[in-house]
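Raw record, unedited: Putative monooxygenase
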Amino acid sequence: MADVVIAGAGPTGLMLGCELALAGVEVLILERRTGPTGESRAGGLHARTLEVLDQRGMVEPFLAEGRPLSAGHFSGLPLRLHDLPTRYPYLLVLLQSHVERLLAEQASALGVAIRRDAEVTDLRQDTDGVTVTLADGGTVRGRYLVGCDGGRSVVRHRAGIGYPGTDATLTSLLGDVELADPPAGNVFQQRTARGDYSVLGFEAGWYRVMTTRTGVLPQDGPVTLDRLRSSLIEIAGRDFGLHSPRWLSRYGDTARQADRYRQGRVLLAGDAAHIHYPAGGQGLNTGVQDAINLGWKIAAVLRGDADDTLLDTYHDERHPVGARVLDNTRAQVALGGYDAQTEALRSTMAGLIEQPAVNDQLAGMVTALDVTYPLGGGHPLVGRRLPDIDLPDGRRAYQLLHPARPVLLDLGATPVAVPRDRAGAIDHVLAHGTAATWRVPVLGTVPAPAAALVRPDGHIAWATAVEGDTTGLDTALSTWVRRARVPAG
């Protein structure tokens, strides 16, 4: 029996597998596909995702293959990313097929077992674990099962978890194709009275072409090159000589979210937990960030370091994040209409986005840099992600998180006294002499704390502005950090 069975070897499932394996958990990933996806799918990684890869020491291969793009958008209205408070103030253009390959390589290096041609068809859970039935009639068993199996998740359905939301109001067609007569440069969401279209150059020799029209088009049958050509001619007035498709697909603005992310020993992450219009490329990124929140918590429960009620905090923290993504993508769809009233609204919004505060708020939302968890405590940094500050010993803060252990970052001249029964369970880092101020999303430039307790996912669980003050530290430790074994004598 595996400790954790994961259904789905997409980015979310692979990232979760890496997190669990790093914590010493035995993982089995089940994937219905016989091999890695050959479809390009999502197109990039946002700053927050790059940060979480960095905090596990995994980011360099992604940076080496991707292309930084310092501009984002909100419903096609440009957002400036270059001044975001992060080491990665850009969108890293990198197709999902490459992201999956790089994550699979990391998972393999960590010993994660991936079983392909293994389609989940049913599940049954009891007090000790979950039995998973496969399409070939076989079964596997794990102490926990995590559904990372997409918007049509069998795991979600068989666990009896609801998936309420809203139906599509538009349909977009997408083709990765070659062009005989490409435009002079990239065209992004060029708007006409009939809809909008994009022609984007990705890797050498081929382009991503997308068209969008309001009103749901017929959904029966596969998307064909002729259907994409007809849509492009109708909206753009020409087809740019498209030919030789690599991948053709359609998508809409259906928006749904699981009403709970946990049902006993079954949990959901990624598209199995939330689907939405792919405005701003937030889906893949939100799923990877789900995995970062969930992995260390499951590991702590399996080790006996925490009661399994710790897993309830996964829903409490990530469900609101998913709901906000659904809301902001719905807003972007509403802002994308083609009538005169919407055009007037877009003009007003474009003017507002020129204001730095509005730009930064929307950019923080789309990149998820502004995500804060309700962890309690009176210090304004509690619940926010630790900035990747430079430390006096030459390291960066995110390097401290590579082992996925809690960190007590001690910035004062007088070290914090750590209870003896917790000392072996955290990395106590003395870092007096770091910068006196930190740049933090939403908050701006703020005084550095005297000390901060950082969870394995990089979020600050406790902080104090006063040297030597440990008020609330014991409560934070008892919530998020196991008790270490204390030698006798």
